[in-house]
From TrEMBL, chain A:
Transmembrane regions listed in the UniProt entry: 21-43
InterPro entries referenced in this protein's UniProt entry, alphabetically: CbtB_put
Xref: NCBIfam families: CbtB
Protein name: CbtB domain-containing protein
Keywords, sorted A to Z: Membrane, Transmembrane, Transmembrane helix
Top-rank taxon: Bacteria
UniProtKB/TrEMBL annotation, chain B:
Name this protein carries in UniProt: CbtA family protein
Transmembrane as UniProt keyword: yes
Residue ranges crossing the lipid bilayer per the database entry: 94-119, 128-145, 165-182, 189-208, 228-248
Keyword entries, A-Z: Membrane, Transmembrane, Transmembrane helix
Organism, as annotated: Methylorubrum zatmanii
NCBIfam families on file: CbtA
Keyword Transmembrane part of the UniProt annotation: yes
Length: 60, 258
């Protein structure tokens, strides 16, 4: 209970920062996973080929 | 907070990918190389009609790399033709597998971080491990039920269909796990179960008769090893993310108090 009351003053700024961090992390994460697992470019496919097979991404 | 999150995700992705790369090189890469010796010998010679018709149907939909790789008379596999770049066998191929695992590991770690933030879970090794295992269930195990990990040369349904089913299954399983494990009310548990089961009732895209020269024992071994590596990968990402989050938090505290 005490921690909750202590945190309330900082809650608004923290939640805004948290939302930004959430967006950045989700966007970057999806981008990286797409490049390595789904990107159709042949060069990317060939470079990540063994990883795609081992991690069970659908592959050719 | 953003710096702390990104730092922790980088550390977690790096540590997990080092281990996963080692496991892949020891366990799955030899099987992939072995399967590639069967590729092009009989797979595509046996099913040229299938390939040709699917190439015509999907030529407009599918990416150029795959459209022309399915053209009859060609080598068959994506890296069959000379002008396409591919890592040289040996060290270069190993290096690119490691690089891909690193990028994938960091990507997974960032997604795990985003999920933990959205769930308002303070990252610790323990809570990280729980989310990591959920990640394994949703991203590795659930799609593998419909689309088992495949070796090169095991022809399947058109790539775009399989990728769509894979993605839908991952999202549905993730949501289902959230409804069951986080919400934990009878109604949401029921909804979660429905979400988890639905993609498998709908069924993964399959080819009626996939001709393959790859020995079944090899394929079975590959599927089991692939899932085992996936489990270690995800568990380590979760554990290491929770650990690194605490590490960078202490450093930030020390700086602010100094």
């Amino acid at each position: 209970m005490t921690t909750a009351t202590l945190q309330t003053s900082a809650t608004t700024t923290r939640s805004a920062e948290g939302a930004r961090a959430l967006l950045v992390a989700a966007f970057l994460g999806l981008g990286l996973v797409f490049v390595v697992g789904f990107a159709p470019a042949t060069v990317l496919h060939n470079a990540a080929h063994d990883f795609r097979h081992a991690q069970n991404f659908p592959c050719h | 907070m953003i710096t702390r999150l990104l730092s922790a995700a980088l550390v977690a992705g790096f540590l997990a990918s080092v281990v996963a790369t080692g496991l892949q090189l020891a366990l799955t890469s030899p099987l992939i190389l072995q399967a590639e010796t069967y590729e092009g010998e009989g797979t595509h010679a046996l099913a040229p009609a299938l390939d040709a018709s699917s190439a015509v149907r999907l030529a407009s939909l599918i990416v150029p790399a795959h459209a022309h790789s399915h053209a009859p008379g060609e080598g068959g596999h994506d890296h069959g033709t000379a002008e396409e770049w591919q890592p040289a066998p040996g060290l270069q191929r190993i290096a690119f597998t490691g690089l891909a695992t690193l990028i994938g590991g960091v990507g997974y770690a960032l997604l795990l971080a985003a999920v933990m933030l959205a769930l308002r879970r303070e990252p610790t090794p323990r809570s990280g491990l729980a989310i990591g295992i959920a990640g394994f269930l949703a991203v590795a195990l659930a799609p593998a039920i419909g689309l088992p990990p495949e070796l090169p040369g095991m022809g399947g349904a058109p790539l775009l269909l399989r990728q769509s089913w894979w993605l839908m299954t991952v999202i549905a399983t993730g949501l289902g796990l959230y409804l069951i494990a986080v919400r934990r009310v009878p109604l949401t548990i029921l909804g979660g179960l429905v979400l988890i089961v639905a993609p498998h009732l709908a069924g993964a895209p399959q080819v009626a008769e996939a001709a393959s020269q790859v020995p079944p024992a090899l394929a079975a071994q590959f599927a089991a090893r692939s899932l085992a590596i996936g489990f270690v990968f995800w568990a380590l990402i979760g554990l290491a993310y929770g650990w690194a989050w605490g590490l960078f938090g202490r450093e930030a505290d020390a700086r602010s108090h100094a």
